[in-house]
Each structure stands twice: as structure tokens, then as C-alpha cells.
Amino acid sequence: MIRICQFGAGRIGSIHAANVAAAGATLAYVVDVNRDAAAALAAKHGARVAEAEAALADPSVDAVIIASSTDTHADLLERAARAGKSIFCEKPVDLSMARVERCMAVVKQAGVPVLMGFNRRFDPSFAALKKAIDAGTIGKVELVQITSRDPGPPPQDYVKVSGGLFRDMMIHDLDMARFLLGEEPVEIFATASCLVEKRIAEAGDVDTAAVTLRTASGKLCQISNSRRAVYGYDQRLEVLGEKGMLEAGNQKPTTVVASTVEGVRGDKPLHFFLERYADAYRAELTHFLEVCAGKAKPIVGIEDGRRALQLADAANESLKAKRAIAV
Ligand SMILES: NC(=O)c1ccc[n+]([C@@H]2O[C@H](COP(=O)([O-])OP(=O)(O)OC[C@H]3O[C@@H](n4cnc5c(N)ncnc54)[C@H](O)[C@@H]3O)[C@@H](O)[C@H]2O)c1
What angle is formed at CA 108 by the lines to CA 66 and CA 99, rounded to 5 degrees? Predict the structure, then answer.
């Protein structure tokens, strides 16, 4: 039975803790600077509340889930790696490339496996689409379109510490672009505006963005991000290849469609990431347990985290410079 210590008892931490129990592993400890949040989550899953040092020093703990705030990831990655634990870390590794690279060196030295929380790679539809690309269903990939729009903007406190739209939100799409293109982007052009709420511009951020990526062989990818989609969480993929097209559409609570004299109506897409990617989070955790048991290597690792951050930083640079940037 794999025993896990989890850092972070917030939104995403609650999801991972529930999936640990459901997958048959043991949640041994919950660590959170908010003791009430840690106690509530630990009680729910029969775990104990602990301080980081004690939990990491416990030799019966095999693995660590880092689901705490972004600014804690790099430190906890290093401490867990030095303690010899298998690690599942939420995105991003850090907002600073220099810090990410220092952290990677420590992890490499320790030789422990790290799974990065790019959960969309585990979404059953997106994974099946990727499998179809790899099976040659549409031949050579030429053009990828990623639509990723939140139902509404986050609170201002979140915006201020998020690292900006490219590093906080688009980082998932930048990882998806690399995943689907199957080649590293070598050029990026980003343009963006603040159209949803003025307060986002006041925090120095944007809420609407369009990014184009190009690989060395000329494959293209367009990413469309918005912090507002009044019809729900809009998560769609389209991949055009020499022999056809692959699409993965939005998911809805039901498929019921009412056609009447007024028009045709159905459900809106699932509201947000906790609902839309519930299956992906479960599959991601199952994969992590296989990694912990030595039965699999992480399909998405810390180097993927570094690459996605590199693209996000280049997108910021492109936005400022108003021109394409070589990556
Ligand atoms: N992959 C995804 O789909 C996804 C979705 C949401 C969030 N995230 C990432 O997960 C992380 C957490 O996001 P969230 O939305 O759950 O945030 P949250 O604010 O709901 O939870 C974060 C928790 O971390 C705790 N914390 C802060 N410092 C800590 C420390 N030093 N040790 C232990 N706990 C500490 C906070 O008290 C809080 O309870 C972020 O890095 C975010 O980018 C990923």
C-alpha cells in the first residue's frame, strides 16, 4: 500500500486527496499552513495533520503530492527529492526560470521520479485524440487549434499572485501544444488585451489572448484564451493533418437537446476545471501510483514544466515587443 503525504488542502488538494483514497493508496499526512483546512481534509480521509519536516522524515511515506500554492512548489520539490520520495507536483514548478532550473538540478541529483500536474494530457478525450495522431489517422499534423476559456475571471487576490495569464492559465495549453505537435515550437507570437474586467489590467495582467506557435518543420498551433466565456468552461481541440481532422469538443452534464419553435437548446458545457477534468485528475493519480510502484515512468515530467514555462515567458516577451520571438 503506497503511503502519501500531501501538501495543500485547498481546491485542487481536495480533489487529489479524494482520488488517493479511491485509488486504494493511503493518505498518511496532510500538511497545510492553514491548520483548519489540513485538519478538515485529513479527517475526511483518515489521515493525520503533520508539519512538513516530520512528514518528510517518516520512512513509511513513499510519495508526496504538492498541491499547495505555487510559490511553495520549488522548495517542497527539493525537500521531497532530498528525502527520496516519489513526487507529484501541481503546475507550475515556479514562476522564475532560474528557480526552476535550480530545482531541476536538485531533483536530478536525487534521482526520484516527478510527475507534473498537466492533467489535460490524462483527459480521456484528449488522450484518445493524441493516440489517433500517433496512430496516423490524419497523417502528418499541420495545424493545431486550442480553445481554452474560463467561465469567469478569478478573484483579484489570485490575479495579483498568479504570474499572469500566460504562466498561470495558458501554461496548460502550451503544454498541450507541445503534446499534440510532437515537436518543440521554435517561434511564438502573442497578442493580448484586457477586455473582461479593468481590475485585471490594473494588476498588470491581460484576460484575452491569442498566441501562434511554429515548429522547426513548419507545424502551426493557435491558442485562444479568455478569462470569460458566459456559456461555460470552453475546452476544445482541433487538429488538422494531411489526411483529415481530429476534434475533441466540450462536455456537457447531459446530452439532452430541446428543439422547439423558439429554437434548439441544450446544456452549457461543464462549469469549470474541477468538473470538466474530474476523469483526468483520477487518471493522473492512477498513473502517479503506477510511477510510485515502479511500474511506469512519469508521462509528463519536470522538464515539460520547464518547457511550458519557457514558452509562457516567450509569450510575455512577444506581447511586450509586439513581434514574434524565437524560442
Ligand atoms: N492542474 C490543475 O488543473 C490545477 C487546478 C487548480 C490549481 N492548480 C495549481 O495547484 C496549486 C494550488 O491551487 P489551489 O487552487 O488548490 O489553491 P488554494 O489556494 O485553494 O490551495 C492552496 C493551499 O496551499 C496552502 N499552503 C500555502 N503555503 C503552504 C505551505 N508552505 N505548505 C503547505 N500548504 C501551504 C494554502 O493554505 C491553501 O490551503 C497552484 O499551484 C495551482 O497553480 C492546478
Answer: 60
